[in-house]
């Protein structure tokens, strides 16, 4: 121990430097500890260990060359010490390119700790000192030199290398868990080679456990990876089914000899790169120089707007950004670079080109991978693809894969994707038909055998399209059934019945209406369509329509749900409709036309004069005079549902595709 009158250690620093480059420069523990790890690397250490004791203290210890009292004063305690200018470009023993350059990294510890103990052993001599941020501030304010306190060296720190103990931690900046620190340091250093100590190896150990590729969280998320020059990441560090690519071009500038190494990769979804609370956001590409970060992210600098950019993470090694004979272009916290430097611009242009190259490969490979996953999840889709003609299967797989790659937001994402699968399958049927016909147009002659694929595709498409129509109609029928209030049923049917006559009969798929015919009927029989059931003038409510279907002429009258009717009155009305329409059709040259009159009722009509006949028998007999029939609101919906369900079950092709789409609901 030295006497009080002759302090062994001294430190000189201005308050503004302390505030700007120490206390306020670094905002988290991972960045601070990165500076200390870099110092251990530069000291030729084979191992730097970090003991993370919650919020009590942090111990960083290495087995490097250590520092003498002179080195502590002249290097460690000297802010702005230019290591490369004084000691050369590389470390003494392992010739490692120095990571440190500015000489201000040691100030980073003051951003998370108010008390710092430093112990170092060099050539058998051990030294210990304590720096108090409070005392340092006071000395600076008084314009006096600051003398760190000399302290005894515990036996645990008296052997080799340097140990730094951070105490009186600041909770907000030192609130990382050991697991989080491990994940973040793993991304900040390219020193995971795990060579033996006597071969120049270097490893980072946290709480007695070395950092390995297993701690690289972004590697675990990857589906695709592009490596520069060669495959450098061990297979065991990557997911088992990852697809690997290699960028052959690694030269950023041939004249300057600027090259890159490292990798970029894409995750399955963008959210997989942003949801790791311990590792932080993985959605960036860290740029390293001399195996440590020199820029935290480069993606936003590439002006790359393609979807590919949302899925990317990575690590680029560009040592030419930190050359000893070039200007220092890194900011003090080593999170950004001077953006207008030629080296930075060259790297950005180079990476933009690699992004274009990778995004094209990704756009081709990703749908194939997603198609495999989607087909595995939905066996019915697999059956549908296998049922396509051989020449269409790859295109069908690509379509399914493309849909599977799309991003949907919100709680309805799954149902939205399923709906798109359904629409895509139906659309594919139609596209397949068009392509077949286009192929036939290139034939110089057409034979019957050439027409068979067209007919087969036409049938497949029509079945698929018709099946989807049937499905939508079944859904509409189901919604009708859920309406319990009589007036609401009447309102809904009034709005939809005449444009959807398939509700009355499943065979009336293409019923067409004719306003001209209705005008002619009104002209011949003015009261036919103009009066309501009570003989009063109508006020915009039209309850009678004329339509044709497959040569059959229909008159459909919709009665109010609560309207009570008499079968004799209905028969007279029906006869009037039928006779009037028959006369008009004969005038148009259509004698013997088939005419049917349909009454849609909410209530069963009364049959007062039925005599000995059963009620329904009498009703049927009366309606024969006009070839009429009655359809009831509730029965119409039930029967329509049954007819369409039976139809779906009856058609094999419709049933097959129905099963495919049902699997997506």
Description:
Helix 11 packs antiparallel against helix 12 and helix 12 runs antiparallel to helix 18 (633-650). This protein has helices at residues 15-23, 29-42, 69-76, 83-87, 133-141, 178-188, 217-220, 342-377, 379-386, 390-405, 413-441, 448-481, 486-496, 515-524, 527-530, 567-587, 615-623, 633-650, 652-662, and strands at residues 47-53, 57-62, 113-122, 125-132, 149-150, 161-169, 203-206, 209-210, 222-228, 243-247, 251-253, 258-259, 261-267, 285-289, 292-295, 312-317, 512-513, 544-549, 552-558, 594-601, 628-632. A hairpin with a 4-residue loop joins strand 11 (251-253) and strand 12. The strands form four sheets. It has an eight-stranded mixed sheet. A six-stranded mixed sheet has the order 10-9-13-16-14-15. A five-stranded mixed sheet has the order 17-18-19-20-21. Mean pLDDT is 80; it is low at 537-542. The chain is of the alpha+beta class. The chain has 19 helices and 21 strands.
